[in-house]
Amino acid sequence: MSRFLVRLIINAVALWLTTLIVAGVRVVPFGNQDTLAWVLTYLLVALIFGIVNGVIGNFIRIVAFPLYVLTLGLLALVVNALLLLLVSWITSLLGFGLVVDGFWWGVLGALVLALISWLIGIIIRPLVGRGGR
């Protein structure tokens, strides 16, 4: 469970940093705009993104594996952008959350989000241990 919470926080921080770097990706908080609302919004969006990425993303990666090989992994950029757009659509139905201004902003946002998550994971891993691996 603690590993799940660490990943959730890493993804939320990576999402926050992505919104600071990529102009076409932003988050709209629910309720008032105090710090708690922002933090909870980022955590909820990170949770939704994790679920979408874990369920739908893994299914797409398995089904489209030959295309991943054929495109040398470049298809991953398109898939991750579409997953980010899907999270944007899901959270918009809730009235708050992720806003992506278009497909190409989604590609850039997904690339930046993946890089930042990876970097934070590298930094955090020695601090929290390997988590049972």
Structure notes:
- With 133 residues, this protein is mainly alpha-helical.
- The chain is 76% helix and 6% strand.
- The protein has five helices and two strands; from the N terminus they run H-E-H-H-H-E-H.
- It has helices at residues 2-21, 35-63, 65-70, 75-94, 103-128, and strands spanning 25-28, 97-100.
- A two-stranded antiparallel sheet has the order 1-2.
- The protein is globular, with a radius of gyration of 15 Å.
- It starts with a helix and ends in a 5-residue tail after the last helix.
Count of individual helical segments: 5
Mean pLDDT: 92
Q: How do the strands line up in the largest sheet?
A: 1-2
The ordered H/E elements are HEHHHEH
Strand content: 5-15%
Helix content: over 70%
First-last Cα distance = 14 Å
Identify the quaternary structure here. single chain
Spans of at least 5 consecutive residues whose pLDDT stays below 50 are: none
In short:
The protein is built from five helices and two strands; from the N terminus they run αβαααβα. It is mostly helical. It has a two-stranded antiparallel sheet with strand order 1-2.
Task: Summarize the helices and strands and which ones pair or pack.
Elements: H1 2-21, E1 25-28, H2 35-63, H3 65-70, H4 75-94, E2 97-100, H5 103-128
Helix pairs in contact: 1-2, 1-5, 2-4, 4-5
